[in-house]
């Protein structure tokens, strides 16, 4: 009898335990932290598409040559690549991969990295339309840091947009945006070569000071700086690699015509450059020299493509002293997305415009600005 | 003090000598269980009609010294046995009694419901009772765990040794709305504002019974009993005598989930001696030591919005883990980047293209890395009982405890070397009592984990250097390093999150690794520095002094009604040296007093009993409060009762809600609700604004505060309790409906540092969010206030207890609590599941000589939308099973038990941000357990 009871009890206990286990076994898992997902419209990286699409084989060859593919294949990176396709390379004087391979590594390195905006994703349709462009650091830098920091110094590029048209510096964009897991590719029709010189330099080459056709303008700059502290000198700004200026630089012919007229013909235009330089350095009124110099400089970098196709006034450094001054009138003449020539008119030029042509005379890109060589001195009043 | 002690001892000695000199005659005997033959301890032996009596010892023996001539009748009674009367005609005869086991269903006597003894069946309000035998047979490793298995009870486990029960909602760690009363003393730590029943209460072997009154109970037990009262009563040394001990050794963390498998020790001892018929004493001690459960919810949490967010340390730069510490503040690196853009214009457009606000948090530490894993609890207790007369006892008792544990309030607090003592002197008579007691609290080396880790991070590397309150960033500052590195990484082509993680790695260079000597040195230094001096330590030596008395006038007034009148006085003396309260210059006293009356009248030959109770209390910082209670008990049949009641309860703001002034890390400054704080911080001259969606939208709303009031609840309850099926089935069913008013809840407000509203009106909500956490722009406060409107609660419960044959007992219960009419935006902290179910099967004696026993208890609770000052979120539904098997060795008075709680090791949390509880398995051997 006792055994039966114990067996019965054991069965009851077993049922309870089994039921309890059955119920308890279905406890939900303790909730745990959920990582934030960063969804991408693509599972491919920029590097993947460079690898798979042969229309980009030139750039891929360049990137491979300089070891940039690793970064472009890394999904945890983020780039905006203004990508010149193979046709863009050809249009820029690089007809084949063999030519790329023959170029010095440093040159190719500069080309590849100058087309990359690191850490930001900027589809071409989101490039700001504000004049003149947006200054963005590229992946290309000299390898030095900003003083007192760990922040690297990087060369800037200047994407711009007007409506659906966009440019990378002056390279026209192509209507294609492709998003990838690590960034975006905006196609461009030309290779953009990075600048290597500053506008001015105390020694060594520079865009303005090394140009013998701009030597009189240089003298005007120096004359205008007379008596100014170093920080206020235009010369200092032109030498500062961190500056970002547009210089409408009158060539020596223009400067000679201006000085000759200003001296009532005492110095004929046929006189050697040195005569004009000497005159400016010793006799030209300092204030006038400074006023004219600053009237030739915009406080931002504007490439030819950034100016409108119709004449419009743009403030210059002259406006810092005379805010109400209308500035300088500029007009760019486009064929498609390419500028053929520019007209620049000073407020005091009586409606007679300076021109900048041919193409080799404008959009002379420097580390710290751009130079448009013009054939007339601009007068503010 | 020493002189006073000598006087007391001399007084006691003189009383003892008086006792010894009295003339006595003696009757001896022995009591056994007729079925099992084992001796029965603590059986009541009284001489019929005299009030004289004694109790059996651990071997069932008794010796009664009665000055009453034979023949006489002895009445022998014990819960679980049929009452017997034995005629004694010769005093020299040895009286042998064999008691017949009987069902105790519904027969237990409770006091809590009316402050007078009555059968639990006849209680006018819902009441639950845990007897010492239930504790003995329970599977749960501690009696507090058993409370958690009572129907309708929710438990929040802050840590192994810090568990907080509640009923009918408004649950939380250190719940303020449930009074815990140990031997008549309020067990709440007066400065820390949580009941310490599970830390510094009675030792398990000294518990005679635990009575739980769910729902409103202020009418008898004063302020605070909004959601019930838990009364824990110790064993009388005259009744429960001899040496008892229990050695419980177990194991936890068996799957190495968060911590390696570790032992659990619970050793307790009690010794009580009846020195004479007039004098007895008891001493006891308990030691619990284990590696604690860990709060390991590492989900991302938005403290301002009070909700869980997606994100981990690796995927959210502003990650703030619920149980990670030191990562609470979010600092916007945007201003630093903007200053770089200003200095380096050619990066300005690039920097502008980065997000408008880039909040980042310091790297925190996991709770298991910073909180002492050793949880220790030492309890010591002692009591003297001197019978001044046959019915009047002088009781002197003291309970002292210390330990390490973790508590969850508005933060996780590591209670380290916490000490609390309760000391009482009482004169007790069946008709009256008068008692005085004091609670002496010492927070020891306790510290706020958040504050400590916040300042720890500042100690090893400053986030931003401030000079005279003005930020003066240095290149070595963590945030500067982070911001520069972030920009560097972005310029290196990294995605935002990759740049953040690299920046963190850079700024974290030199971060002390948990457990390293450097970590320990800085950590110990910070945690032992007071909060007020940029550390984590809270100094608290707040004390409570209380006096109370009660008289039962029933003998005088029984023709009209049975009347009980009582009153009490409490004085809190806040003493935190400015680390918690606004008491940096002097201690703060708070006086509180109250009085109550209860009248009971029986009608229709005891078929109807009406009870009217009322209580008035006054706290010097609050208006006086009257709380009535009406209840009726209707006897519908023998052992079947219907109960109806209207009860009310209220709660004054706790001492912290009145006087706290505490800034923890980057959290809002906690203020008391008294107007003096609003004046001091200039709310009238520099307005504060509600931190809500309006503020985020740039439309700040000025927040004004009304006078701070007590919160109240009025509750209606109907219930039935009865014995059916030949008294084998006990049914208890109830339903209640409560209306809560003037809830005390904290609200967060923000104030511009410079009195400039612009910091709240920026069109970019991200800027406003960044300003809110920028201490140079905005100061935020957390202020307790009364919530407008009424909140309704209702629920029901059903409990079934069935006594099967052969000592089997089966129990099942089903309860529900619900909250409704919650005002928009109000964080109720209701924290009760809509449904909970419990069931158990037990046997108190089967097998060989009925020596074996077992108990299996299963519990399930629904999911809970949990809100607390520390964190808020959903607790998933969970099941858990406790179980034990036991074997008795009657001759040796030993009980061997093998058991465990959560025996299936299914981890669960019953409080958001609190510990994750796993299985605990033990083997226990007990001697002379009764």
Write a brief structural summary.
The complex is a heterodimer of chains A (381) and B (930). With 381 residues, chain A is an alpha+beta fold. Helices cover 31% and strands 20% of the residues of chain A.
Could you describe the 3D structure shown?
The complex is a heterodimer of chains A (381) and B (930). Chain A is an alpha+beta fold and 381 residues long. Chain A contains 13 helices and 16 strands. In chain A, a hairpin with an 8-residue loop joins strand 13 and strand 14. The longest helix of chain A has 23 residues, at 2-24. Chain A is elongated and about 115 Å long. Chain B is built from 16 helices and 54 strands. In chain B, the strands form 12 sheets. Chain B has a 22-stranded antiparallel beta barrel. Chain B has a 5-stranded mixed beta sheet with strand order 10-15-16-13-14. In chain B, helix 9 packs antiparallel against helix 10. The interface between A and B is large, with 53 and 61 residues.
